[in-house]
Fold:
Amino acid sequence: MDAADKVMEPSSCSRPEVEAEKRDYGLTLPAQTANLRVTVEGNVFTVDRATLARGSEYFRALFRSGMRDCQQEEVDLKGLSARGFAIALRVMRGERPVLNDNEIEEAVECAAFLQVEPLVKHLLDAVNSDNCVLVYHTAAAYGLLELYHGVALFIRDMYHDLREDVKYLPEDLIEYVESLTPSTFVAVGTHTSCTESELCHAATRTICYLDEDEEDWKVLTHLPMEASTSMAGVTVLDNKLYVVGGVSGVHKQAVESCFCYDAVTDTWSKLASPQQLRYNFSLVGQGDHLYAIGGECERRVMSSVEMYCVSTGVWSFASHLPRPAAGAACAKAMSRIFVCLWKPMETTDIYEYVPGTDEWALVTTLIRHQSYGHCMAGHRDNLYVMRNGPSDDFLRCMMDCYSLTSGQWTAMPGHYTNSKGALFTAVVRGDSVFTVNRTMTLEYAIEDKKWKPKNQMRGFPRSGSMWTFLLRLPRAGKQPVAHDVLDTQKA
Structure:
């Protein structure tokens, strides 16, 4: 085994959930301060009523019913497996257990019967190409619609790779998957806001998508005139593209205008600007919120974090970063938000934002030569950290993988051709990673934590840096990018 293939020692900062996941799935769950005994298949669980009320709609309704049953000290659940209930309890208590096929089926049954929303979310987070067909079929059998739809979307994104497995499903389940729209790789270059005197440049202010059938880029929509993608925050949440902040002019004047693009209706709308104007920050969407993390204002690096509630349209401050950071690498994995904060020159700390407690928790530390100037991507329960090659070689990219489950770092063997920043725009879809620059669009297949080149297509026909993301969008009526008129590869 090469040295690069060796697994590093587990991080001393691993989360307590990692140890919990190593416990047996038996029924020896630690007792909490509890006042309810739940009997399942002859096994008695002593559980805190508050835990059950927070996590299960079934128990929440029971406790609020006012009926005699809500005052009982013991409840006997019929038709459920004890192991499925034990898994539900673990998830309601904040653990993230890794489940085998039998446990998945029992967990889905329990989630459906007791209406355990945290367990549904955990099952969605745990869906991968190995278990998605099983989860999909089981969710359909138990009528767990949120899980059913979420897994169907996952399968649709990987339909080409999963076609052989999917064909054994009932016809109605196959038809539902095929009725859905797959995710599409989308990119936009960096543009500052456009004035009336600059209308001649408006034609170049396009957001483009990759037509994988024709292996070429096509125009999706044009940016609003006031929108800036230069040093802005750009992210996708619930199939809507958000462009927040940015700069305008050579003096990096902060832009107040913020916009949202609805991919389904092909329309733009404005949204409120953050309370603290910022640029060169990271924007991440999770749940019902956008998180504007760090950044700069008037050339001052900040540690402040703001969150935008989509349902209310209000910005509010969240807990500050542990230290100021601009342009920090961020990624989501298992519906968790992670950010890299580096200490020049060789240390990178990875923090997780915990919404429930509004705090930043140190997850692990990576010590590597030239570990700064990187980006991060999440796949399954792994975080991939990309950094510059040796001796400031920007044409090569070194990569390390951190497992959230085991708490271990693995140095990826060899190096990856970065080719002017392509890998620093990595976007994950299923078991594929899309990277792009002006020269080429490259799709990697993730196999055994290694990235293997899978498909090469035409590059994005714009110069400079870019934002990349995934959207589910109708393709009818979209036009190819005018390669011979705009900023083309022939220029």
